[in-house]
Amino acid sequence: xxxxxxYQLISMTIxxxxxxxxxxxxxxxxxxDAWIVMVAGLVAGLLLLAxxxxxxxxxxxxxxxxxxxxxxxxxxxxxxxxxxxxxFAYESMRNTREFGDIINIxxxxxxxxSLLMLVMVLLSGYAISKGVEVFFRVAEFMFxxxxxxxxxxxCLIIGSxxxxxxxxxxxxxxxxxxxxxxxxxxxxSFPFGQIVVFLMFWSHLNEKRKMVRVSVYSYLFVGxxxxxxxxxxLAILDPSITSITTFPLLRSVRLIQIANFLERLDPVIILxxxxxxxxxxxxxxxxxxxxxxxxxxISRFKLTVVVGAAIYGMSFLAPNFIYHVWIGFAxxxxxxxxxxxxxxxxxxxxxxxxxxxNDKKKKRAxxxx
Amino acid sequence: MRPFTKNKQSGNPQPEACxxxxxxxxxxxxxxxxxxxxxxxIIKERTGGSSDLIIRLIDSMFGKELRIAVIYIEGLVNEQVxxxxxxxxxxxxxxxxxxxxxAPSEVLGMxxxxxxxxxxxxxxxxxxxxxxxxxxxxxxxxxxxxxLGISASTAGGEQRGVNEPQSETxxxxxREGFTENLRTNTALIRRKIRNPDLWIESRKIGRISQTEVxxxxxxxxxxxxxxxxxxxxxxRIDTDSILESGYIEEFIQDEAxxxxxxxxxxxxxxxxxxxxLEGKVAILVDGSPFVLLAPVTIFKLxxxxxxxxxxxxxxxFLRLLRVISFVVSxxxxxxxxxxxxxxxxxxxxxxxxxxxxxxxxxxxxxxxEALAMEITFDVLREAGVRMPRAIGSAISIVGALVLxxxxxxxxxxxxxxxxxxxxxxxxxxVAPSVSISNSARILRFGFMILAGTLGLFGIxxxxxxxxxxxxxxRSFGIPYLLxxxxxxxxxxxxxxxxxxxxxxxxxxxxxxxxxxxxxKKFQKPSPPKNKN
Amino acid sequence: MNRWPFLILLLLIVPLFVTGCWDSKELNSLSIxxxxxxxxxxxxxxxTFQVIIPQAIATQTGGGGAGSQSPTTIFSTxxxxxxxxxxxxxxxxxxxxxxxxxxxxxxxxKVAREEGVGQILDFFLRPFESRETMSILLTKGKAxxxxxxxxxxEKISGNAVKRVIDQSQRNLSQVQNIxxxxxxxxxxxxxxxxxxxxxxxxxxxxxQSSLDALKSPRNEAVIKLGELGVFRRxxxxxxxxxxxxxxxxxxxxxxxxxxxxxxxxxKGGERDSLSSFRVLKxxxxxxxxxxxxKVTMKVQxxxxxxxxxxxxxxxxxxxxxxxxxxxIIAKVINGEVVSTWNRLRTIETDAPGFLDVIHxxxxxAWKKLAQSKHPLDEITIxxxxxxxxxxxxxxNKPYSTLLEQNKRP
Lengths: 369, 532, 409
Fold this sequence. Notes:
Chain B is of the alpha+beta class. Chain B is 43% helix and 12% strand. Chain B has 15 helices and 12 strands. In chain B, the strands form 3 sheets. In chain B, strands 1-2-4-5-3 form a 5-stranded antiparallel sheet. In chain B, a hairpin with a 2-residue loop joins strand 1 (53-60) and strand 2. Chain C has a domain at 248-409: Nutrient germinant receptor protein C, domain 3 (GMP Synthetase, Chain A, domain 3), CATH 3.30.300.210. Chain C has 14 helices and 13 strands. Chain C has helices at residues 3-19, 54-57, 82-89, 109-115, 118-125, 143-148, 157-171, 180-188, 205-208, 242-251, 319-347, 354-361, 363-371, 400-407; strands spanning 30-41, 44-52, 72-79, 96-98, 104-108, 135-139, 195-203, 221-232, 235-240, 258-263, 274-291, 294-310, 379-391. In chain C, a hairpin with a 2-residue loop joins strand 8 and strand 9. The chains are: A mainly alpha, B alpha+beta, C alpha/beta. Chain B binds chain C through residues 340-342, 344-345, 349-350, 352-362, 365-367, 408-409, 411, 449-450, 452-455, 458, and chain C through 16-18, 20-21, 23-28, 30, 32, 34, 52, 54-55, 57-58, 61-63, 98, 100-101, 103, 129, 131, 156, 159.
């Protein structure tokens, strides 16, 4: 069993959650209150995280697929496992296609999308072929640089004096309801609920006692970071411009002007975003590979190739970026992802709870006799 | 051209715990017959009557009954020792009792125990042992009728003395460097660490060359697993010859196809001593002044032994500078290509305009321009290394004036490109270890291709691939990016920064974990308490 | 072994990398645009670009012909959409137009009044290479004329204009540098109006557009900033003159550095000697009050600065005299603010964003106002101005007092 330590888990959780999220303005449907949507999503996501951690706490050393099989029986377990493999691969593919298109739109308009995505899938596949440990180490190494990057970005934004906090005013103009409507389930599903894939990795942690604390602290840290950038976009671009912009963060970054020298940093920021995307797509990819390893008995390398090919193939499903975003934000987040992120884990947790409750009752019944 | 100095060496006085497994099997083959003529004939046959093999026969008054043969190779032995210690004892008057013909073994015992004034003497049983002893510079003494002989340590002859190392010069620190002689090298290290726990294990590697390779480590500090692993890998080597430590490096390193070295080498005994104290293992190869060190992590390659002699603040600054220079020498040309041909919007307008003006009239794309200039520089560098000193200055004039100045004036390359290439080259020389700057030299071209195709995204993809490779790399079981990935807070004290000596309480965690404690706590100097 | 598939894949990919460089553009294949102007002729957009000629600008190059060549050149094209006009430009240029360094965008009054800026903003916010920090300017005549004027001391006139704006914004708060992104946000804001400075040419335009003009010390024509154009939604509705634009600056808390000229005494007329007060620091607080359905805006201006120049005779070391001066200055500011507000009301633009303040503080009243046809008419303002003269610089009495003393003996 490959082992990871707590620093690696912290780095991975944070980078994974950052992903491509800062690029988008989640909850912009309610204009200047988008950040409240974010807070609501953050809190709801924390509950979800507690749910996942509860499942894992009761089964140290087992990964998600083993837990599924143990509680739901061989047949249902296998069916669900297949579903989850597909789900993980699909999430990975969403990131692949998304970033390929981001690069096409804002960076290299003439470079073929197929090549960009091929490069990305190959990189992820290379990381996975080296194993869980190496991938977590990669994330660990990237972590300080990424945080430094975001911190530097924050300082540059402050330094160029483009924040207008008054643009956030008139808090909750239309009350709480539209905010909750935005937050549930979209913002939970992306990005907070995606942490479900960590059910595949937590079993590798060498210090099991620290799992809950480390996960929750990393989650809160990254939540605050995402919230910060959400607020920044609103304050820099004005809710009106933010609402019509494809990638608000890129636009905000282009407004940085320091000493007539530092301008137009968006290509650099895209690279920063790529670190998050790379970690997220590789984590899902790895989740799919690890899951598939339970189902079929072929070598890890072959699995990596097979899943990678599937992800690459699937990423051509959407005919264009507009459709890709629409199906992601308007369909998947509302109807499909919650099944995997909320329903099944909740069901599983309920079963575990009942079983352990029964056990306790039995024990209690036995003890007096 | 290295200055050779005559150095008369007396035979090394201290015998070592040598285990010579590789030659044991052969030893059984040809035993000494006891017939001196036959034995000598076979020896002559085996060496093809080589003219430097000297066989000196000493007759006694018993004629053929008792003869003594002294066998050595001219040039490998110390003539002074031969003339003052070996020969006088054998030709001494009272050596053989003229009235009594002693048994050959008795004579041998007398030579060995009474007369021969040489400290290191061993018995030899077979012809092969005789040959290998002679080839190692020892003198073999055979007595007619005896089925065993003795070998006396007389190794010496002309050798380079201990000089200041050429490849790693320091401003502050010891000025001695390793030589080609294994024994001199082990002695240099022993003089720094006078501790019986400094163990040496030897191997003879190379079927034909029979090169002596010594593995040196501090028992109780070095990780036993690493030592065992190194010894096993050494034993696995089956080749005809080992002429330099580079052979060993390629045979035993962890990853065959990696641009990064998983072992490092140094010419400096103090660097080896420091590394041994951290729990590392040194591999010395006879005939090479470059001693290998393992395991090594990437940050060690940016450290010079001088870092530990200078004040910690400047040492920390220099380390950061070296890492930055490494990154610069690897990425600068590719960043230039990516920014000037893909992402012109990053540049400030005035800079863009002046770069554009320079490129006006340059016939090649920036990528080709950069590639050509980089190759030109590498050609110049290679020419400079191999050239005799006298021609070196001509090379630099041709390189600097003709290629730099003229190419810009002729409009073949832009001035900015010359600046970029020059700075890249200089940054490449900052790394204290040649092997790591060579990695940058190779990788630079890969990054240039990526930058020319996909711009900054290509560079980023390349960096991530490189990072994955580095994260997967291990040096004898130790992760290559050690204190950063996996992150070990305690080891940060000697990675990018160097904390003062009084704060370096523990040895590196994974390498020296057997005996982690390095020094007493609370040694931070402070002014005396009682002020008078 | 495992490595073979990788190696084969690598072999397949490497040629791709070597042959493909889809997006690389060499520096010497770019036309770097430093300024753009947009006019409207009948139903066509007329887009004019000012392109930098690098050889003429860089001091030392292989060619060495700097100085003899005009530093910029101008292309003018037209089309039914702005993009089409730009595409048509490539029919006449040898190089690819490169927009990322465009630093100013000049719109003609006609475009801003009749067509509105909606489509222009859409166009400039869309492509990734356009620069959101470019400055927006208006002009009353033909916008493309402005690009032809060569500016002494400067080689890239687009950048020069930007520097003129920056410089005057620092020294004279009535001018404001409006970035494209801020302009877009202001236009979209239902509770505020956008304002854009005017750029004008004074003098003989033809004379200053040839390189010879730079050889004589006196310029035939100069580019200068003029009035302030005010928008209602995306259309230009009027102009504010210098005094009014200062008033807007006061109202919208933008005053950083401004000179106020005032007479010696409160009742002094035009012929009286004048003094200058330099504002160093100023803050304006807007707050709304509702009294019986009437909305009152309280405008609290707090200006601090120094007495910079005076022709009056008075004892400046006397606090009472200073207090009197402060009152006069406050009265001047008050006058500017009130007259500006009256003007804004007549052209019905809410340049300082009063409605925004009301929206924040009294959402109910705002709802009522938003339904009203002329919401600004229902607002009255109540300026409260405090001026503080912090010191009188290096001399503490007017120089003219010395003249008085000399007269006596």
